[in-house]
Amino acid sequence: MDPQPLLLPLLLLCVSLAQRTRDTAEGPALRGRLISGNGPLDLGQRWGLKTPLMHMKANLTEVTSIRSTFEFRTLDPEGLVLYGDTQAGAEWFVLGLRDGVPEMQIRKRGMIVAVTGGPRLNNGHWHQVQLRNEGQSVVLEVNGSQALVLGLHSQHAEQDTMGLIRLSLGGILVKDLELFNSLRLEMDGCVRAGNWLNLSQPWATELVGEPRTCFTHIRRGSFFPGTGLAVFNTSDFPTHQGTGRSITIEMEGHIGNWTGTVLAILNSQHKAILTIAAQNQTQKLEVTFGERTDSLSLAQNELLLNLSENVMQIALGNKVIAELRDDARDWLNIWDDGMLLAFGGVPDYSTNTSDSQYLHGCIWGIRIQDRELDLDHALYKHSSISSHSCPASPDLLESSALLTADR
Ligand SMILES: *[C@@H]1O[C@H](CO)[C@@H](O)[C@H](O)[C@H]1NC(C)=O
Ligand SMILES: *[C@@H]1O[C@H](CO)[C@@H](O)[C@H](O)[C@H]1NC(C)=O
Ligand SMILES: *[C@@H]1O[C@H](CO)[C@@H](O)[C@H](O)[C@H]1NC(C)=O
Ligand SMILES: *[C@@H]1O[C@H](CO)[C@@H](O)[C@H](O)[C@H]1NC(C)=O
Ligand SMILES: *[C@@H]1O[C@H](CO)[C@@H](O)[C@H](O)[C@H]1NC(C)=O
Ligand SMILES: *[C@@H]1O[C@H](CO)[C@@H](O)[C@H](O)[C@H]1NC(C)=O
Ligand SMILES: *[C@@H]1O[C@H](CO)[C@@H](O)[C@H](O)[C@H]1NC(C)=O
Fold this sequence. Notes:
Elements lengths: L7 H13 L12 E3 L5 E2 L11 E6 L7 E8 L4 E8 L4 E8 L2 E8 L2 E6 L10 E8 L2 E6 L2 E7 L12 E6 L19 E8 L6 E3 L12 E3 L1 E4 L4 E4 L12 E7 L7 E7 L5 E8 L4 E6 L2 E6 L4 E7 L2 E6 L2 E7 L5 H7 L2 E4 L16 E4 L1 E4 L2 E2 L7 E2 L7 E3 L16
Antiparallel strand pairs: 1-14, 2-13, 3-12, 3-14, 4-9, 4-13, 5-6, 5-12, 6-7, 7-8, 9-10, 10-11, 15-31, 16-27, 17-26, 17-30, 18-23, 18-28, 19-20, 19-26, 20-21, 21-22, 23-24, 24-25, 28-29
One 2-acetamido-2-deoxy-beta-D-glucopyranose binds next to loops.
């Protein structure tokens, strides 16, 4: 892939973080600010970085308890929850979620093993989680019931009692993790009431400001706080996966509460073809197609964009509100060749000034060709966007449908 101007600041950030946390034989020094390991901690505040949000280390000789407990809440089906290692990363442990259920992977004495199972945890409720060593096994308990056990018997009976143990949240402490099953590390989840190996020492964080706090109550959706966008390549959703005759992008949400750019499509020269922006104050939707701008009244909770050969159709609910025709272009071919599809803003490749406004609002769901879109899989996503959760008011949550995992 060509270097992307948009991604460049992100890459530079990765490099500077990597330099600051360069590993030594003893593992990275605990530089950066010290914060409590108890949480609450929003694990999803940095997209596209593998380095942890916070980490700690201890002498194995000081570890008297091989038990960690914490509470965990998420609506995200996949991601990393906890990483731990010894021998500067030669032996490691990973707890994550895959398809909403817990997964443990361990590397020990050159072997990697993985086990997945137990209750579905991505239901937006708090779960009491306990991890402990029992002989040669690692046991995961959820709400007091055994959920998953991973045993690893070794000829070498001696236990690791020397050296350092390291733990991290929101990322890993090695450059790359050679997992048994690869895992998308980003996790939009919250950890609180953490007790890690009964050690009370502080953790180190590279975060400059305060860590972002967890939403008190959450509902299903993607929250755009007005500070960034997410970009996809349309060629990742080829037309032949649908009817082949049209492409549909559906967005659900309380559109009257959105403000800023909802969606933008840019051609391969990064020129905007279509932008749709919402204005909560005027309750209007502004649709810009080439030179033309339409201002339309908002009503429904569903916005549909339908691209067929020469026509782009925009509908609110079941009502088509705009039809944009260009007989000189075949949108389906251009789509398959690769355009940029952005949610929450207009990617700006030219200068650092942009007259578009980033979206503020909760998108309950985005579907492309009838498939749910996971913002964690974007080409680029601003870290301020919560991919799988929006803040919610508790009275709204009376309706548990707001948390339902399956749609
Ligand atoms: C671990 O123990 C060794 C030897 O007792 C000591 O030199 C070292 O500073 C300790 N490291 C940490 C992180 O406490
Ligand atoms: C945990 O730590 C506390 C205080 O540091 C200590 O009193 C207690 O015995 C420890 N528990 C275990 C299981 O090691
Ligand atoms: C754990 O308990 C909490 C509170 O009772 C509940 O909401 C959650 O769904 C439980 N988790 C599982 C996996 O049963
Ligand atoms: C819309 O925003 C208003 C004011 O911010 C808020 O009171 C209301 O709950 C929101 N409605 C929905 C459905 O999110
Ligand atoms: C519009 O949205 C902005 C940003 O969320 C908010 O500050 C403002 O109160 C909203 N205005 C109305 C009329 O809902
Ligand atoms: C999209 O547009 C095409 C062509 O106008 C039409 O056949 C198709 O039914 C539309 N799809 C939806 C979901 O509106
Ligand atoms: C999008 O995908 C197309 C086709 O795979 C590729 O040629 C193009 O470089 C991609 N664009 C970006 C910005 O990654």
